[in-house]
Design brief:
120 residues, mainly beta, seven-stranded mixed beta sheet, four-stranded antiparallel beta sheet
Amino acid sequence: QVQLVESGGGLVQAGGSLRLSCAASGRAFSRSAMGWFRQAPGKEREFVASVSMSSGNTYYTDSVKGRFTISRDNAKNTVYLQMNSLKPEDTAVYYCATPDVRGNWTDGSWGQGTQVTVSS
């Protein structure tokens, strides 16, 4: 089992930037895909971005392409989400996650979440 701890959330004005961090411990971090999800009030949790452990490829939901960047540092067992040009609609609790051995995100490991609030 992997333990994940997010940090870096906060309150920022529209147009500003934040960087989220997710520190992982447990099974070999470098063999895991990692991702960020978010859940806004009254809405379902949605995928934001992920990075593939095999290829290093990154994936983003359309609404954050060009504004958010996911990266990982295997030496530090940490994944980051750099968020630029933030919009009020980015307001949500952001969760770091890694899928289970079958590649299922829902059944994988999740952090406790960190609040991001973007004011207009």
